[in-house]
Amino acid sequence: MAEEEQELMLDGVHIVDFSQYLAGAGVTRMLAEMGADITKIEIGPIGDGGRLLPFMKDNRSGFFIQHNRGKKSVALNWEHSEAIEIARDLAIQADIVLENFGTADTLKRRGLDYESIRALNPSVIYLSVSAFGRTGPWANKPGFDFIAQAASGLMHMAGSPDEPPGVTWSAIADNNAAVHGFAGLGYALYHRERTGQGQFLDLSMVDCLFHHHEIALQAWHLSGGDFVPKRMGRHHELVFPVGLFQGPESWIAMLALDFQWGNVCRAMNRPDLIDDPLYAEMSERTKRRDELIPMIEEWMSTFETDQALLEHLEEHRVPASPVLSPVDAIDHPHFNAREMVRWVDDPIHGSLPIPGFPWKFSAQKELPELTAPLLGEHNVEVLTTKLGYDTEQIEKLKVAGVLIENST
């Protein structure tokens, strides 16, 4: 007997996705893994701007593939009123509508904003993702990940104190907003299940990053302004040992708070340091970190390899890690065991690696096999099944240039 097909957690949930690039597309990327039916509305002639981002090969973007698997592409020329009508007709049938345009006016002018859709679909959940949010003095200010890092204060905290602000060249603002949007939609769906009410979610990339400041505001306040949040470099100024240490081969990240300090001392075979009044309190260790750093690094240098050092630290329950590059994960046993390097199929590129799905739901143990769409690949399917268009209507829309298709 054939194995019964797994029911996915979001089977039957219909999403109309107007987003492009990453902050919005990242939300629906995760929803697709859970079985949501996602209609991706793309604006012709190019479609999602993410289709143009590197790395490109054979005119096909790896970036686009990673963030748009499992979505059905409907590509429309918005210069035609018929295109806007199609987009609206799809949105008023949706459980969730999502957008991440630079300004709210982009969709409002076309009658595709929350108020317009809610008037026809009162239970709709509408997620708007933007750099600065839809309210406030900067509501219409354009922004991407890099800009959000700067405005949120996160860039101010990255790097060494005697150097310019540091940049994280991974899309932490985009991806963090995507995870927040993913979580928010789950609660919005739960709320609608209980009450029948849809709602509008206003999600700002800057807000999401600003939420990362775990001590900056209250530490400044409680210290009477003596502590000013700033770049600290390789070692934390308030807690020690928390930082990067030179290992026998490369950098080792180690973090030991009060409860772990004794473990560090025992690992170094220096139990005398545990109760030494010069180092017993975290505040004292922090003051004396310039003498402790070389002491720790000299001890680390006695190991032949980083791996031997890390195994020794783990034996003593000291939190530590090598500083890995993203590519190191491809053949790493832990990342492979967690299925966090995932090889997926693409109709043009064949098999390629992407980061895996971070949630491990016991109710959905297997992930669906998904591919990223070609531009306008699902025009016919969506217009036929969702809107009831016949072949003649679709052909007229193609001839008029309302519908757009491309082979990449």
Write the layout of secondary structure elements.
Blueprint: E1 14-17, H1 25-33, E2 37-43, E3 56-57, E4 60-61, H2 62-68, E5 71-76, H3 81-91, E6 96-99, H4 105-108, H5 114-120, E7 125-130, H6 145-151, H7 172-195, E8 199-204, H8 205-210, H9 216-222, E9 242-246, E10 251-255, H10 258-267, H11 282-287, H12 289-300, H13 306-315, E11 320-322, H14 333-337, E12 341-346, E13 350-355, H15 379-385, H16 391-399
Parallel strand pairs: 1-2, 1-6, 2-5, 6-7, 7-8
Antiparallel strand pairs: 3-4, 9-10, 10-11, 12-13
Give a written overview of the molecule.
The longest helix has 24 residues, at 172-195. The strands form 4 sheets. Strands 5-2-1-6-7-8 form a 6-stranded parallel beta sheet, sandwiched between helices. The radius of gyration is 26 Å and the shape is elongated. The chain is built from 16 helices and 13 strands. The protein has 408 residues and is of the alpha/beta class. A hairpin with a 4-residue loop joins strand 9 (242-246) and strand 10. The chain folds into 2 domains: 14-211 and 336-399, Rossmann fold (3-Layer(aba) Sandwich); 232-246 and 251-322, formyl-coa transferase, domain 3 (2-Layer Sandwich), CATH 3.30.1540.
